[in-house]
Amino acid sequence: MQDDDVRASCFAALDVLCAQYGEELHYPTALRNGFAFRGGRVPFLSTQKGIYRAAVQRGPAALSVQTSWKSPYGDSDTEDGFVYHYRAGPIDQADNRALRSACTLRLPIVHFISTRPNYYRPLYPSYVIADDVAARHVLISPGKMIGPLDERQPFPVDDPIERRYLFRETRVRVHQARFRARVVPAYADRCAICRLKEVRLLDAAHIVGDLEERGEPEVSNGLSLCSIHHRAFDQDLVGVTPDYEVRVARRLLDEEDGPMLDLLKAFHGQPIVVPRRAGWRPDRERLAMRFERFAGRG
User: What pTM was estimated for this model as a whole?
Assistant: First the structure.
């Protein structure tokens, strides 16, 4: 494999950083200094352009690509992978050659997806599985690491059913991270129900699920909720009316099961916190749809 030593060092360093900081890496804190390689430091990615091939590499293929928080190329996804556009200019421009070589040589890369400004979720190993010259884009899909923990090796996923399943799971995590990055700050980094302000315990809950009609990843289709209230909301144990009031399921109100349950019940009939900007506030029609389901489950 070309540059397998560089790629192995890169992946191993990302393993350590993800274990230390979680799946979203802050560029100045975790990524800025690159990774150690033969007594030097090698950058993980370029923040100035999307396609990156390190100076220490001998082969022609890219080491990583990055999708910015607001990509100028309109990158999207299909059921098989992320659509990633060539850099503007000739298709034989250096960066485009590096991207296309990763496809031709079937080499693993890192796909850094920015979930919010200065934060990246690294997807690795990823593979460029298709190259559409006419459309000027490639298709990037996650691979997998195989082998003992201390000797793991990257491999592409060739079975189309397995690949689609793996990509679907990856896409959900990425979309949820980007959705959270919009919703939680809109609520001033606090739970809409209990006002908890510990960001590490806050999630973005969909009012209408992202796979349902009207389930777009808009701030107005989200609620910033702590982990407990998010789980309760998803299980229809807690609901929110179109008038922005909390309701607790009748079966919980009728139970006596200690202080934790009392904490849930205490917010019954209370108003939720809403964003200051009117366009970010929970969409009342979506809330009505969701509350109807909650009421029907009792």
Answer: 0.80
